[in-house]
Amino acid sequence: MLAEFKDWFLNGGGYFGDHVELQYDELRNLHLRVAEGQQVHSGSCIVSCPHALTLSHLNIRQGGSASLSVSSLNLLRFFLIEQYHLGEQSFWWPYIRILPDPSSEHPFDTPLYYTDDDLKWIQGTSLEHSRRKMEAMWKEEHAEGLQKLFPSDSSHYPWSVPADLSALTSQLNMQEIVQVGCDSHMLKELRQ
Q: Measured between alpha carbons, how far is residue 119 from residues 112, 113, 130, 169, 171 in Å?
């Protein structure tokens, strides 16, 4: 999995400095670290990623009036869901595969994914209030995206459980993705 990602990244024009190495573990997922016996000096290029390899709204805003009426962040969320469901057919699959597995029992440690036992500890705190506020905001953004992107049929992107959708784009964690039944052709219309 890591080798596949590294090959995809390098073949796509990406660069990793010789003084760093790509690592993967369950705790930190994909990360870079200084290679054994190496030092990183000021001005060193550690990593470089060409635009073509970035998972960005700029890669999907190539047309479609509906896509222009949705925020870039929300559009990227739906695009990532689509790409996840495309699996190996997705250009970004080598990268998507190394993200935290949203189907695992506890894929994320964010408050929206706290267990019922954990939620008891935040009752009556500002964190509980913030959690509810963020969940409501993300559900609203999700509903707005469905209405604007798929006005005739939004059943392919249901809101199944509370999902920390901001993490899709800030950390590119895919919390909600495995809980939706996505038709991978839905967003293709926006790019034509």
A: 9, 9, 13, 25, 23
